Amino acid sequence: MNLHRLLLVTLLALSIQKECPAQLVTVKQLEQKLAAPSPPPPDHAVPLAVLQDATQATQIDNMQLSERLTSATLASILKGHTFGPRTQRELQLLADRSALLNPPASELPDRSAPDANQQQHMLDAARVWVFQTLTRLPNFFATRTTERFAGISPEVNKTGKPVQVGLFPRGAFTREITFRNGKEVTDPLKAQRSARALPQMGLESWGEFGPEPAIVLLGVSTGSITFHHWEQLSAGLAAVYRYSVPEEDSKYEVNYACNGSNAFQAQPGYHGSIAIDPVSGAILRLTLQADSKPDDPISHVASVIEYGPVDIGGRTYICPLHSLAFSVEEVSTCFRNLKDQALVHNRTLVQPLILNRTTFSDYHRLASTHKIITDAPETP
User: Fold this and answer.
1) Same domain assignment for residues 279 and 235
2) I want to staple 355 with a disulfide (CB 3.0 to 4.6 A). Which of 121, 149, 235, 246 is the partner?
3) Burial class (CB in 10 A: 0-12, 13-18, 19+), 74
């Protein structure tokens, strides 16, 4: 696309954003909007398909879902339509932004809630799976690929003014991770190479291979947890519980660095959901949302981890497949007070949402083989 066409597409997208306020829609309403034919744009200096892609993508940017767009429904939408590359990307980001919500009631299995004994049995089985099975996985390598996005989404726009809404790519990086003796370890040489490849921006998360589900299950022993609904996930049927852990019992840490200094550290309360395989007790999906305070420099700190079956050395194990991490910077800049050198934050009405989308792949066992060859008998 030449510069003239690119400029026309950009101006068209900005004009649409000014005319279209954020819309709160259900998944069904989203499907109806995507099925409706789009009127042809008036300017034909740019190919029609490019303009339609830009128009549709910008409309999706301005949508806010009231329900989760599940991976199965998203796959069905993409299969049933021919979308341009930008529209496909915005639909995936819309699904990511809705990942902390419940799916539509129409997608939930028609199954009665388990009784109190069954609910407790599944929770006990989940604790066994986290503290005994997940920490006793065989030693293995895996590939961790993280895509980063940042921008203004309807969920965090508090200005009430027309701004350029949307999340935009901010780089991607891939590194090999090692799981050894029950925990993820870092090879110093690989860590140095990965650090050089990282984009220079702020959100980092970890804990998918045990620490995060362990923190949740330890916290709910003094917090609260209740069965909420059954859900059909890609890895199978799951019993979904809602939980909450108060600040005084929290072991979950949030750190915020500014200008090379650790400007903020807290152990806030948190809440979320945990989806458990009713047969094995394996955790199939976990969400966590930190309870931010009004003066915190970051807010909307949250994560989503999806687990599923993977093959490691010829055997099947439940391991992380995908994860999402969110945060919103409530400050635009920070500087040191000249009197006491304390860090001071400048707050702003336009808060950028940072989203990390991580995929775990290429699991393979870390092992060595030995072959002992004895001396062959002498031939006469």
Assistant:
1) yes
2) 149
3) middle
